[in-house]
Specification:
The protein is mostly helical. Helix content is 72%, strand content 0%.
Length: 156
């Protein structure tokens, strides 16, 4: 043993910090270049539907629920929320990841149900609240609030 080395070395946080940096940049790019991401998702969905032999016309057309088509809108929101959950998972070192993912899932479901009810029943208030919930969930705010609440003193 080296006489100058009295303490065993702590594991490095560098890989975790690098992963957080990459995930943060991906989330930033997803939000900053939203229209380009929607265009890419639209092409991917059209290719998948074409390969499966289905026509992309009805499912990909804007329908009042999403201006980019329902599959594209849902895919974008799942990507954004998935990255947010992954960032919180890494930040919080895996604690309560299932609760966080469940919270995002409930919020996405509530938003989609409000959109569907508003569209089918012709209720503009439900439609606007559905868009509001989905917009809120697909923003950095839940990520920041979730991390803040989890790191409050006395919480584990």
């Amino acid at each position: 043993m080296n006489p100058l080395e009295t303490h065993p070395q702590a594991p490095s946080n560098m890989p975790r910090l690098m992963l957080l940096g990459v995930l943060g940049l991906l989330l930033f790019a997803l939000g900053q270049f939203q229209e380009s991401v929607f265009a890419l998702l639209m092409r991917l969905w059209q290719q998948m539907l074409h390969l499966s032999g289905q026509a992309a016309g009805g499912t990909m057309a804007p329908n009042g629920l999403s201006k980019h088509g329902l599959p594209v809108g849902i895919t974008y929101r799942l990507l954004y929320c998935g990255l947010s959950v992954l960032i919180l998972h890494v930040l919080l070192r895996g604690r309560r990841t299932w609760w966080i993912a469940g919270g995002y899932g409930v919020a996405l479901t509530v938003g989609m149900v409000l959109l569907l009810v508003g569209k089918l029943a012709g209720w503009p208030l439900a439609l606007s609240k559905g868009y509001y919930v989905l917009g809120l969930v697909c923003s950095p705010l839940p990520l920041l609030v979730g991390y803040m609440l989890k790191t409050l003193p006395g919480r584990s």
